[in-house]
Amino acid sequence: MAEQRVPSREEIETVIRSVVEPTSGRSLLETGQIEACQIAAGRIRLTLAVAPALAAHLEKSAATAEQALDRAFPEWRASVLLTAHRPTAPNPTTSRPEPKAGGGHRPLGGVGNRDASEPLLPQVRTVIAVSSGKGGVGKSTTAVNLAAGLVLEGLSVGLMDADVHGPSLPRMLGISGRPEVRDGKLLPVEAWGLRAMSIGMLVDETQAMVWRGPMVMGAIGQLLGDVAWGELDVLVIDMPPGTGDAQLTLAQKAVLSGAIIVSTPQDIALLDARRGVAMFEKTRVPVLGLVENMSYFCCPNCNHRTELFGHGGAREEARRLDVPFLGEIPLLADIRLSADEGAPIVVRAPESEAAKAYRSLAAGVTGVVRKLPHRR
């Protein structure tokens, strides 16, 4: 089988330069500036920074550019994203210098010694986002137990907490203290057989992170580029809820191999899950499947099963969206207790019904991971 030819950035720019915005008659490359160009895992992801006033107007041109790239490089799937950054007004009350061009925000401190031209996560074979359209559906609990379950499946696993405003990973893994720094890189903290990193390890857990989008995106960039993740079969990223700056940053920078959407069965949660699926489809990130959390409740005394939030909604939604359904997770007090105590239930109570559900999920995801193309 012939090896897939990797298009160069120059070839991609040539294609984009041929796309003309009909109103102005200018090339899309003249109208916008390439902010990021990721070429990996069979996908081309191009991010163009444009003036805020032009962003909505250029959507059709971006779609035309995607089609042009697909024709030019038929073995690759292309996505062209537009970003519009408002200029930062100078602050006369402070003498702090503005970040250098290309340096970006570094809210976690440090100077950063990574060459901007180097790929992120070069030793990570697969990156999976665990996401939800809204908060409160058990996404973080699912991410933690999935990651621990993948370790039990024999994979080397990292777990990154991208929820900057509500980092819960340190508490759920029983981690305290700050991570070490070696050669300018943060060292992930090892717990339950996996390597973990969260902004919650760097700040007091009661501290509120009152940050706007650029600071959040800067922090996520540092968690990706300033952490010595090492060689991993899979990095699981616990995403913040919603479809905002953090999700777009990770889709642009991390070259996600796929995404898992967590939802509860009721219609209102499924509506938000639908938005999450649409966002990943827009950024050409494969949706690996849906998980129905809090699917049912079993009484610990009589084992009577009650479907508190309905049942089967995520399975039906997966069928409607034509994406895999990955499994049901019950609503059990032991899951909450294990999270509060800092031990994933797949480790704390491996024979429990909840642990078996998470292990089944991890086994299914392991099969998917082994079939996904490596990022490098």
UniProtKB/TrEMBL annotation:
Listed transmembrane segments: none
The protein's assembly and partners: Homodimer.
UniProt cross-references to Gene3D superfamilies, sorted A to Z: P-loop containing nucleotide triphosphate hydrolases
Residues reported to bind ATP: 133-140
Domain of life according to the entry: Bacteria
Name assigned to this protein: Iron-sulfur cluster carrier protein
Keywords: ATP-binding, Hydrolase, Iron, Iron-sulfur, Metal-binding, Nucleotide-binding
Coiled-coil region list: none
Family the UniProt entry places it in: In the C-terminal section; belongs to the Mrp/NBP35 ATP-binding proteins family. In the N-terminal section; belongs to the MIP18 family.
Species for this entry: Acetobacter sicerae
Entry-linked Pfam families: FeS_assembly_P, ParA
Region (Disordered): 83-116
A GO MF term: ATP binding
Residue span(s) of domain MIP18 family-like: 9-75
Function: Binds and transfers iron-sulfur (Fe-S) clusters to target apoproteins. Can hydrolyze ATP.
Ranges annotated as biased composition (Gly residues): 101-112
InterPro entries per UniProt: FSCA_dom_sf, MIP18-like, Mrp-like_CS, Mrp/NBP35_ATP-bd, NUBPL-like, P-loop_NTPase, YlxH/NBP35
